[in-house]
Amino acid sequence: MAAARLTRLVYVLYIGTFLSFLYVPLLVVALLAFNANPSPAFPWKGFTLGWFGEVLRDPLMMGAIGNSVLVGLGVVAISVPIGVATAFLLVRYDFVGKGVLYALVMSPLITPGVILGVSMLIFFSDIGLQTGLGTAVLGQSSFIISFVLLIVSARLQKFDPALEEAAQDLGATPLRAVWRITLPFLRPAIIAACAVAFLLSFDNFNTTLFLIGNSATLPIQVYSAVRLGLSPKINAISVVFILVTVSLGLLAEFLRQEERREATRPDEVLPWASPAPGTLPDPEPT
Amino acid sequence: MIRRRNARTVALLLLPVLAWVLLLLVIPQIRMLDISLRFKLPVDKIGTAADVHTLSNYLEFVQEPLYWKVFIKTIYAALTITVVSFVIAFPIAYYLAKVSSGSWRRRLLVLILIPFWVNEIVRTFAWLLILTEQGVLNQALRALGLILEPVSYLYRDSTVTLGMAYAYMLFMLFPLYAVLDSLDFSLVEAAQDLGATNLRVLRHVVLPHALPGAIAGGIMVFMLSVGTYVVPEILGGKGAIWFVQIIYRRFYDALNWNLGSAFSFTLLVLSMAFVGLVLRIFGLSVRKAIQS
User: Fold this and answer.
1) A159 near B CB under 8 A
2) What is the mean pLDDT of each run of 10 residues along chain B (292 residues)?
């Protein structure tokens, strides 16, 4: 009994230390964003929201937030359709070179982001593409598609193709069967993939650094500001940054859990897959 | 008939997939390899007879001690961070998966997930605020009377290593948690009933089961650590140069894309080789663990 209590105490102490290690630095950042002291340090000189006001009046920082949103939307628009197409291709079809293609589509997950950025910088300059928001969208998509693929293909593998065949037997064209049966089944995974893709884009630094040109996304702007010198204004923009990414992260996690829960009950997604008796007219005898 | 329709569908789906793989991954990396094997030439000489293939950029990497010393330091630090992350994260993952339960486990998971989503730059900036000469740590130590003069903690390799461990540790924790969550606790009890000590249970039951998670987490932590630019640039400055900074400077300060590409390609090959090696070594021992 005493031993069990001791084990518990050791665990509590260890986890407490670990959580402090995680949180104390972030609390320091947050606390000093509200301190009236012009340098981001103690002593405490009173509560102020002034540093947030300075962020609002800084066209570079506000522009960077706008750019991050634009780039994130661009990445979602490119990576989600391509990720879904790749999932269909790899889950459903066999073809020559599938193994090689599989290795290639997974490779961005273990390639350092800097190398993705450098290689695309070289190629884009070959073909005369100016670096900027557009090239940043392409660069980030190069690895974010792989994440979309992982999320969507996991759900597609759970799909029962008999449902699609049944729709075709009832006269639907293959495309219509996919549109009306398979895509609704995939919808939770696609929504989760959109959130994950936006979050990964909003967070990305290494690949973006080489492809953003003279523009800046939020992480790039925060980095430039830190290099110029410390100011509580950076604390303020960091607090905004933390709030945005943590809410996006919680949203993405919630969507993925919803998706996993629903995947076990296809009737929730496809209400007509298991109709209550008498709600549908009897099919014509064939 | 069905076969032909399949072929058309495959072709239609292949179109966007190949556009992605070829235009964003394969061709850029082939081009990177290509220019890493060429001399740096003035623009008007590129494509002329003088633009031949050469190994000179790779030779420069081998001959200049600064480059390969920094390279080895980067790899060594990344390995250290990976091992330290495992040692620190394992008890937390075990506690989350096998000791805690119910709403307390869910709350603890969320508490650990929240810092996971905080951007690397913000986390590094946090350590800068703490460790800089006029920063929070020096203020606290002086207030406590432990030091008289501020100490400079920045621009050291050890500080950069700490910053990276802080930034990437959670990438080890979550894969470990996932595998430990699937460990059947009756196996542990069975081993204990048969007289195994806790240490033997850990070694022969828990750790073999956790291995795939440790490998997945280890690959993530290692890759992030060798590939980071922000952490050494902010915490290390000029005092502690890391390999990715050398790459960045070839591209932007020295404007020598050829040499920068050779460095990038070296880093790419090495990290891929590392992943392959780890999978191979542990792939064998995983099989052995299943057999025994």
Assistant:
1) no
2) 65 92 95 90 75 85 87 90 93 88 87 90 92 85 83 84 89 90 82 81 83 87 90 84 88 86 92 82 53 36
Chain B contact for A86, CB < 8 A? yes
Determine phi and psi for A47, rounding to 5 degrees.
-80, 135
Candidates B234, B13, B108; CA nearest to A86 is B13
Domains and CATH numbers, chain B: 63-291 (1.10.3720.10)
Domains parsed from chain A with CATH numbers: 72-215 (1.10.3720.10)
- From A28, A121, A199, residue closest to B126, measured CB to CB: A28
Nearest to B244 among A42, A114, A145 (CB): A114
A253: nearest CB among B24, B113, B127: B113
Strand partners, A35: A47
pTM score: 0.88
User: Measured between alpha carbons, how far is residue A250 from residues A148, A156, B97 in Å?
Assistant: 17, 24, 20
Q: Do A112 and B271 touch (CB under 8 A)?
A: yes
Task: Please report how many Cα atoms fall inside a 13 Å half-sphere around the Cα of residue B100, on the Cβ side.
Answer: 20
Backbone angles phi, psi at A41, to 5 degrees: -155, 175
